[in-house]
Amino acid sequence: MDGLITFLGENGFTVEQQETIATQFHRHELKKGSQFLQEGQISQQLGFVEKGLFQYFCNRNGDEITSYTAGPGDFLISLTSFLKQQPARETIRALTDSVVWAIHKRNFDQLRQTIPPFEVFYVGVLEDQIACIEDSRFNLLTLTAEQRYQKLLEEEPNLLQEVPLQYLASILGVTPRHLSRIRGQIR
Question: What is the C-alpha separation between 182 and 187, in angstroms, rounded?
Fold first, then answer.
């Protein structure tokens, strides 16, 4: 919970607000391969990753298409499913043994109503998520695979150590074989 409390403090919540918010989160330990959310389910919780690494993916014609990874200090959420209470279009799975602090949607909504700074914080998180999604989409449409890999090297080098090659390839929109060639050329 220390990571969550620190995160809340860094985002301007008073000690009292931090404690009120933190009591609404519950600790979950997930083993490698466990799912935080299954494609087709309606997301009822938002998670804060204390420890571990997660993969967002969907199944298309028997292939896993990885769209995103999340690690310590990140939130786990299927945004559309959580906000609109629609079936999730992706699965969120633990790639390592993990610890997540999760809050149920009804408690999340209650915090938005009772703690005004929480609503401001919520809007900020949404804006960050939207910007991240737009950036990812723009990069996929306008950059070559080599440029996307180079950008990943510069902005998130830790992913290259932590995320298996097949998931990185999927995120970059290439096959694992193509990613291996790119890595060989850039080294």
Answer: 9
Edge-to-edge strand ranges of the sheet holding 91-94:
35-37, 91-94, 54-60, 63-70
Distance CA 10, CA 27 (A): 21
What predicted TM-score, i.e. pTM, was given to this entire model?
Answer: 0.82
Segment 8-41, tens digit of pLDDT: 888 888 999 999 999 999 999 999 999 999 999 9
Q: What is the DSSP string of 76-120?
A: E--HHHHHH--B-SSEEEESSSEEEEEEEHHHHHHHHHH-HHHHH
The domain that holds 73 is classified in CATH as: 2.60.120.10
Q: Answer yes or no: is 8 within a domain.
A: no
Give yes or no for a contact between 27 and 1, defined as CB atoms under 8 angstroms apart.
yes
Can you state the angle between helices 176-186 and 145-155, rounded to 10 degrees?
70
